[in-house]
Design brief:
By secondary structure, this protein is of the alpha+beta class. It has 14 helices and 18 strands. The strands form 5 sheets. Strands 1-2-6-3-7-18-8-17 form an 8-stranded mixed β-sheet, sandwiched between helices. Strands 12-14-10-15 form a 4-stranded antiparallel β-sheet. Strands 4-5 form a two-stranded antiparallel ribbon.
Length: 523
Amino acid sequence: MSFFSNSQLRKCSTVSFPSPWPSPLGRGNSEVCAVKCERVFELRRASNRGSLSPRERVGVRGKRAANHSQRSFSSKVTARFHFFTLLLAVLTAPNFSHAQPAAALRQQVEAKLKQDYPQLEAFYKDLHAHPELSFFEEKTARKVAAELEKAGCAVTTKVGGHGVVAVLKNGSGSTVLVRTDLDALPVKEQTGLPYASQTKTTDAAGNEVPVMHACGHDVHMTSLIGTARMLVHLKEHWRGTVVFIGQPAEEKVSGAKAMLADGLFTRFPRPDFCVALHVASDLPAGSVGHTEGFALANSDSVDIVIRGVGGHGAWPNATKDPIVLAAQTVLALQTIVSRETPPTEPAVVTVGSIHGGTKHNIIPDEVRLQLTLRSYSDEVRDRTIASVRRITRGLAEAAGLPADRMPLVTVADENARATYNDPALTQRLVGVFNAWLGAENVFKKSPVMGAEDFALFGRTEHKIPICIYWLGTINAAAIRESVKAGQTLPALHSGYFAPVPEPTLKTGITSMTAAMLELLGKK
């Protein structure tokens, strides 16, 4: 007994679909369907010839003990069952939901990029040459706001400081927030680029410092502007609302909090999704990277003042030496990770600064420590901070310090919460990136212990799904040479970090545009 009747098989063998979805075999799903159906047709023909193997014969013949009427009825039911089972299997094949962009749409995007790129690269180089520190992004914000307004967005400035919010509406549908950051770092640029920053400014503490876009925020801003232009150009392909934001003070992990406090989700359309990109110093230009779940860490800055009773270095017995106590504290703090934190829970306790004393023979009254704490889960974060307090005080008590000389432990307000990329949203975007950029240009990245305040947009009571992905910036040949030579390329925050503008900017715009078309595409 065959699975299908001849007429059903003829119909099945001609099934086709309008779009060439990618498949693991390197063929469209329409081809896969045709191949699968043709195989069934072959089985039917082989059955008629009596040339099936024993195993195949078991699959295509019913029980011969049944009478003819039972076989006839069973044949019809079985045929229909297997026909729809096969059709369902084809329709739900991997990658079916992420269609390759239609040739006409891809051509539109490429043509628009080619037209706009000279202006966008000039905009990027201007931003790079004129960076501004956190909380001082006035001119940068003005430039971003002007470009977004020119693109056709309704722009509001001075949101949470120098924050910019630009709303682009295009009928009813979902709302997506796209973020860029605006600020730069107090780093001296040493790239030697013709558009390198020569900027010096006065920081919040009154010190003169050099300024550089050493974390790629100029790339982020240009990619956002290019995406806004592209979405206006492609309005017939999507429906909904895009909220573009220029966030200040990311390097101080304060800007997201300030914008939320100033009504980002109440004064403006509240998003259904939040998406951002960030440059990577270890991925080739033209590629993107992704991480599901925890992508970036909790980050806390802790200041500790170890207090003692100072005196002459020749009579230490008459003192309570804070330098010895500080040394004991530094070592004891290392046991928080090695002995108090479960081995499966990542955590970092780093003492980055220790200062105390003024002269060889003077035991000082205090020593100051500066720590950075990193983790992913909130539970590990809270436990690590509590352990720092407990260990620091416990050692002071063991040293016999009086109650009024106990250490002072301060957790700075400048902290970031772990960034958790929504797995479903991330998988959805990865499928789109594979289709638009090619799977060979989409890399899975491990979580890192760096920090971002983008996380806060997903930590409000609305629990909005968020995703931040990585954008490659480095010439592929330079990466190969560094690996061959065993050398490390300049990292983010380095004065030597120099993204390659093309194809970095084009990839940033294309990937973010593709993400928006996926989340806001017409259904």
